[in-house]
Amino acid sequence: TTRYPDQKEYLQATLDIAKDVIPICNANEKYKQWDVFKRLCEPERTIQFCVTWLNDANEIQINKGWRVQHCGLIGPYKGGLRFHPTVNESILKFLAFEQSFKNALTGLPIGGAKGGSDFNPKGRSDYEVMRFCQAFMQELQRHIGPYTDVPAGDINVGSREIGFLYGEYRKINNRFGGAITGKDIEFGGSYVRTEATGFGLIYFLDDVLEHTGTNIKGKRIAVSGAGNVALHAALKATQHGGKVVTLSNSRGTLIHEKGFTEEDLNWVINHKGEPDNILLSLNERIDGDWKADEKPWQTEVDIALPCATQNELIGKDARALISNGCKFVLEGANMPCNDAAQRAFSDAKVVFVPGKASNAGGVALSGLEMSQNATFHKATYKAMNSALKEIMANIHRQCVEEGDEGDYVNYAKGANVAAFRRLADALVAQGV
Ligand code: NDP
Which domains are assigned to the chain? Predict the structure, then answer.
């Protein structure tokens, strides 16, 4: 807190894990002697660079770019790129730190990283986005590679941006390979990668519900966001018999009491890239209730799945969900629930699952994409979907083992402790 007083998201993420793992460190001579937790908090490397490019009017544009390579102990650095005007070093450091713990939970050989830029692709032409991605990659390419650091997508970095980034990487390096994941299926991508974070979230939800002796059928679900994670989570929840009654974006919330159908959700997935507010267009088809500037958390639901962005669900939102009967909250986004919200859920014994466990499906599939690239192999959709289910079940098992508190599973503690042990043991084994 004294070294980085202004990096509030980074401090929030590290302090959250500290409360669960410092007792483990104090009880283990090796961890204490090697100062394990402090060392795991600091990124191994933070690269900052300038991205200069030309807009369609041939005017010079300047953005900031970053890559935070947090932890390479158990595999090449791995984590997404985010393009959003709010991106700064604190946000990327928190995301990279969380990513290291999340990746450890998957059981795969992948380290943790995150990167991005304060560039906003919204309102930019395809050519502008392409020129920006090329300029960004001209700098980033010297720091990444299949055995060094393997970026992927995140907010505002989808298949279009990944295609442009990968194309530039390939041209500069004259090498086809797994230096980026989330690629199109025709050039080294993996089946199920696009759907993996949202689908994995619902596979995890199924495991949580089964553990408490119930299932998703007929349950009312609030989803926030209308991006990659939110839409695929909503789709899989609907396919499993749940009733998704909200979607949202930065402009408001769409409530649909009857529940979105698979057809509605597939329609949004196929029109997601369109420049207008896609939820308003969806509402013209379904006659729901559009609430401008509102969040989805005032709705009566059994389950809440925040899938938009960090700190989107705060204390008063949590209290509204609890008083409306919500019993399960699983994070689809990274750190969407702030400290006050998490405390409120814990006090009310609402089952709360942190993103590092419940949204790990995306990076897990990215890890499997890397293996497929390394062996020039393309696995089937069915094989990748089964692998995703198995990985999510394995993360669920670790959370229960480390977070069992009698009548309540503390998933947050379970995930923190299980991931920490894997990283701490690797750190001790590799020395200073
Ligand atoms: P997308 O860019 O596809 O979608 C983001 C969605 O969140 C959009 O609907 C956007 O609305 C909304 N949103 C963004 N900021 C806000 C805000 N301040 N208030 C309300 N809504 C907001 O991103 P993803 O779906 O890929 O990512 C969502 C979250 O999931 C992020 O936290 C990301 O780090 C996390 N995640 C993503 C993974 C992936 O595989 N994609 C993997 C693991 C985690 P609008 O369009 O109006 O901005």
Answer: 43-179 (3.40.50.10860), 196-358 (3.40.50.720)
